[in-house]
């Protein structure tokens, strides 16, 4: 028995914009229309919120340059962290041949280091300010991302573990100061 589709005959109706681009390509009409509808909807939301006396989301905060800068840099750092965090287990399992448990164990030291360094970053922020800590953090993030990009199917398993740990150390030193400064 066939399951009923929520979207009628359009089984992939729920996939829009960025998710369709992987299959259909960026020049696809479906992708372009979905992205255009999303942009128009976002603009309408912003315009509406700016006109309200008590907006649900106050977009005027983006007029503060420090907030916008810190938010942009935070999003770039967080996106790199999330992207690598999602791709690394696939690489470990598909290219290096480790199982899911081993993949998790390989990535675990990074999480432990990040958990230990977050309070250290907070204390350093109180002593020396956010800019030097954020620079250290983004330097570590960049170095780790470059090193992760150099791996192949012959890479020893300790290298992704080390590089991911450096990446999460950089994330600990960059995210907290930027969020606090924003």
UniProtKB/TrEMBL annotation:
Name this polypeptide is given: MFS transporter
Keyword Transmembrane: yes
Family annotation (PROSITE patterns): MFS (PS50850)
Protein species of origin: Bifidobacterium reuteri
Single GO MF descriptor: transmembrane transporter activity
Localization annotation: Cell membrane
One Pfam family this sequence matches: MFS_1
Swiss-Prot/TrEMBL keywords: Membrane, Transmembrane, Transmembrane helix, Transport
Listed transmembrane segments: 24-47, 59-84, 104-121, 133-151, 157-179
Main location class: membrane
Gene3D superfamilies (alphabetical): MFS general substrate transporter like domains
Membrane association type: Multi-pass membrane protein
Residues of the Major facilitator superfamily (MFS) profile domain: 58-182
Lineage: superkingdom: Bacteria
């Amino acid at each position: 028995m066939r399951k009923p589709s929520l979207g009628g005959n359009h089984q992939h109706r729920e996939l829009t914009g960025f998710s369709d681009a992987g299959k259909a390509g960026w020049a696809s009409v479906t992708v372009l229309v979905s992205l255009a509808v999303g942009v128009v909807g976002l603009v309408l939301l912003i315009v509406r919120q700016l006109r309200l006396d008590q907006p649900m989301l106050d977009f005027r905060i983006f007029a503060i340059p420090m907030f916008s800068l810190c938010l942009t840099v935070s999003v770039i750092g967080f996106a790199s962290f999330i992207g690598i965090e999602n791709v690394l287990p696939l690489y470990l399992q598909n290219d290096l041949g480790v199982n899911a448990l081993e993949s998790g164990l390989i990535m675990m030291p990074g999480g432990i280091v990040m958990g230990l360094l977050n309070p250290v970053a907070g204390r350093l922020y109180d002593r020396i300010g956010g800019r030097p800590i954020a620079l250290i953090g983004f330097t570590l993030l960049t170095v780790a991302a470059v090193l992760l990009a150099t791996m192949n199917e012959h890479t020893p398993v300790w290298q992704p573990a080390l590089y991911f740990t450096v990446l999460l150390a950089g994330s600990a030193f960059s995210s907290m100061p930027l969020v606090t400064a924003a």
